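[audit] Reproducing an earlier prediction to check determinism. Same input, same settings, fresh worker. If the tokens differ from the archived copy the diff job will pick it up downstream; this log only records the rerun itself.
[audit] input (228 residues):
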Amino acid sequence: MAAGPVDCHCHLSAPCFQPDVAAVVRAARQAAVAALVTVTEQAGEFRSVLELSDRFPGFVLPCLGVHPVQEVSPEEQRSVTLKDLDAALPLIELYKDKLVAIGEVGLDFTPRFASTDEQKEGQRQVLTKQVELARKLDLPLNVHSRSAGRPTINLLKEQGASKVLLHAFDGKPSVAMEGVKAGYFFSIPPSIIRSDQKQKLVKVLPLESICLETDSPALGPEKQAFAK
């Protein structure tokens, strides 16, 4: 891998990139980016991310995982359930040697996605299963924790997760420091320039705990319409 910054969390398989994904990769290389850690949100994306990894070896680094919010259609999302893991877990095990992490996994307690205790518990069960698999395969976790910073860190610690990257953490700096004490890393997106919360967060985090990400195509310097 060439020297340079690593984008620790992006969605290179997003539909908006597919018309000319080679141009996206070329632009990243021209910007001296060393690698793109590319995450998935559901099993249906796994093949495309693995194909991108084969197409751009050593530059596109694949993660496979199931996100706490599942897309039903471009206009509709729902909270994840254990059934969403049925197709995913065997594939993660099958391709374990190609992966740099399991992700994107986590909790998302945004009310429009998880308004009930049942939905939140379902997310916890899904995350727990993926933490167990990560420990079994000795792989890191690339973690989403929107509106669920403390519950996510608590669950990860309870389940013995030690190799953790929390992406775009939106919780309090004091909660983030609980993750730092557990040895977790935090990746910061370009949206920091328009986020008071992220600016406060990086003032508290130790430099050695900070990584970089784009969450592309979301969380850029300008507000996008892509975020769930």
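[audit] rerun output stored. Observation attached for the diff report: The first helix runs from residue 21 to 30.
[audit] end
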